[in-house]
Amino acid sequence: MRRTVFNEDHEAFRETIRAFIAAEVVPVYDEWFAAGQVPRDFYLKLGELGIFGIEVDEEYGGAGIDSHKYEAVIYEETARAGVSFGGSGVHTLLGLPYVKMLATDDQKKRWLPKFATGEEMWALAMTEPGTGSDVAGMKTTAKLSEDGTHYVLNGAKTFITGGVHADRVIVCARTAAPREDDRRFGISLFAVDTKSAGYSVGRKLDKLGLKTSDTAELAFVDVKVPAEDLLGEENKGFGYLGTNLASERWGIAFGAYAQAAAAVRFASDYVRERTVFGKTVASFQNTKFELAACQAEVDAAQAVADRALEALDAGELTAAEAASAKLFCTEVAHRVIDRCLQLHGGYGFMNEYPIARLYADNRVNRIYGGTSEVMKSIIAKSMGL
């Protein structure tokens, strides 16, 4: 299928990433899968490769490229190989936009050089036990000290991807009570140093999928956060979160499309090799029809994902468009991966086959970043319903 979204630079980057995955990831991926996370020094390798600095300004050690297309290539290449880069996706897709949008010059000087090298990994702590998609219902608090030098942070977060390895976490907390006419008021963002006294990482959560991505519970007991580590203005955090949700949802949509494309590739390869009743599985009409239908869905998802990518890079991706892309691509991936697993027969249920891992990894796409039901609500509202 002809595409216009990538140019020669992106394709050269793709070759670099594909070679890196083959040399540094594939040989040890089973070990990472068993351990439930990637080794911390792997992120330093990603930093050396320049992945974390692509969108970081040159003055802070990055390449200064204002585009998500290199991230898109990584989504496609990791899915193609049936691997992941652990929790590093939140570092760039979730952490960096907030720093670029909200950080002062002094904060950028302090944080971005180590961000680009992977010496300081970032995560985002928004979700709390019992709140789920209701961000405005958060209970974590940050109270300014009497002398104004620091905030005292108390509360807990859960489902925090990258939470085990994170060196600094953007924590959403209440600095004021919600208003009667605006329950979203009073939330602020803080870039919290994970070495701070009273900060603790709880359980590394045992997930259905995304096994190499460290997801954790976090707790804050009288954590002192320097006032200079406030991100943006006090009490305006909810608005900031909404600004970056479109890019997060694009990332989930594009990743889901890439997973669906990978599933078709895995199934196509498998049915050509697997024989039953003296014939290859690929020779049966049902197999051909199933894979043809899957490919048609992947083609459509690719077009939607690419269109959203172009809009995101142009600064024109609306909340409704991002929601639509996420809803469509994740639902396509759900259907396609399930059908491709079916073509593997019993082997599709074995974790040694990438299709099984992909099936488990894909399930969360319709939950995190806003559930499919929330996406439908956003789309319906944009339709005036």
UniProtKB/TrEMBL annotation:
Keyword terms, alphabetized: FAD, Flavoprotein, Oxidoreductase
Co-factor(s): FAD
PANTHER family reported for this sequence: ACYL-COA DEHYDROGENASE, ISOVALERYL-COA DEHYDROGENASE, MITOCHONDRIAL-RELATED
Family to which this protein belongs: Belongs to the acyl-CoA dehydrogenase family.
Residue stretches making up the Acyl-CoA dehydrogenase/oxidase N-terminal domain: 7-119
Residue stretches making up the Acyl-CoA oxidase/dehydrogenase middle domain: 123-223
InterPro entries: Acyl-CoA_DH_CS (IPR006089), Acyl-CoA_Oxase/DH_mid-dom (IPR006091), Acyl-CoA_Oxase/DH_mid-dom_sf (IPR046373), AcylCo_DH-like_C (IPR036250), AcylCo_DH/oxidase_C (IPR009075), AcylCoA_DH/ox_N (IPR013786), AcylCoA_DH/ox_N_sf (IPR037069), AcylCoA_DH/oxidase_NM_dom_sf (IPR009100)
Protein name: Acyl-CoA dehydrogenase family protein
Naturally occurring in which organism (per UniProt): Streptomyces anulatus (Streptomyces chrysomallus)
Domain Acyl-CoA dehydrogenase/oxidase C-terminal intervals: 235-383
Pfam families (alphabetical): Acyl-CoA_dh_1, Acyl-CoA_dh_M, Acyl-CoA_dh_N
